[in-house]
């Protein structure tokens, strides 16, 4: 299901200020899909991913939690994804990478859209 996303966040706001650091991802719950969006500063660019495991029908367990630069599904299979590129990690049998969004920085603002 396509969800239209077009949000701008200010990196000076306390809830987003850690995005100025490299590889300190932030979960933003109120934009994007069912479970929000995860944003990361990789050092060379900003990346943004839907916070729901794409290999599950959205449910109570399909949201992703952040552990360093890994996002982990809370369902029994425990799918894991890199928050550098959205690609599945490990031998979880997953096929689809995380759904990505465009993230563009302009000064202290970061615009996330699709």
CATH superfamily: Rieske [2Fe-2S] iron-sulphur domain
Q: How would the global form be characterised? A: globular
Beta percentage is: 35-45%
How many distinct beta strands?
10
Strand-and-helix sequence, N→C?
EEEEEEEEEE
* Top-tier CATH class: Mainly Beta
Kindly state the mean pLDDT as a whole number? 92
Q: Output the CATH topology.
A: Rieske Iron-sulfur Protein
Strand order of the main beta sheet, please? 1-10-9-4-3-2
Count of discrete structural domains: 1
CATH architecture: 3-layer Sandwich
Structural category is: mainly beta
Give the N-terminus to C-terminus distance in angstroms. Answer: 13 Å
Number of H- or I-type helical stretches: 0
Helix content: under 10%
Describe the structure.
- It comes from Litoribaculum gwangyangense.
- With 114 residues, the protein is mainly beta.
- The chain has one domain: Rieske [2Fe-2S] iron-sulphur domain (Rieske Iron-sulfur Protein).
- The chain is built from no helices and 10 strands.
- A hairpin with a 4-residue loop joins strand 3 and strand 4.
- It is globular, with a radius of gyration of 13 Å.
- The protein starts with 5 loop residues before the first strand and ends with a strand.
Give a quick set of tags describing it.
single chain; 114 residues; mainly beta; Rieske Iron-sulfur Protein; six-stranded antiparallel beta sheet; four-stranded antiparallel beta sheet; 10 strands; 43% strand; Rieske domain-containing protein
């Amino acid at each position: 299901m396509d969800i239209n996303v077009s949000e701008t966040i200010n990196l000076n706001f306390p809830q987003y200020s850690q995005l100025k650091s490299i590889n300190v991802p932030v979960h933003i719950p109120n934009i994007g899909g069912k479970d929000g969006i995860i944003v990361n500063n990789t050092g060379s660019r900003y990346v943004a991913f839907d916070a729901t495991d794409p290999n599950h029908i959205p449910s109570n367990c399909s949201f992703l939690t952040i552990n360093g630069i890994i996002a982990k599904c809370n369902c029994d299979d425990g799918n894991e994804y890199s928050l550098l590129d959205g690609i599945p990690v490990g031998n979880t049998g997953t096929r689809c990478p995380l759904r990505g969004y465009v993230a563009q920085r302009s000064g202290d603002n970061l615009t996330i859209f699709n």
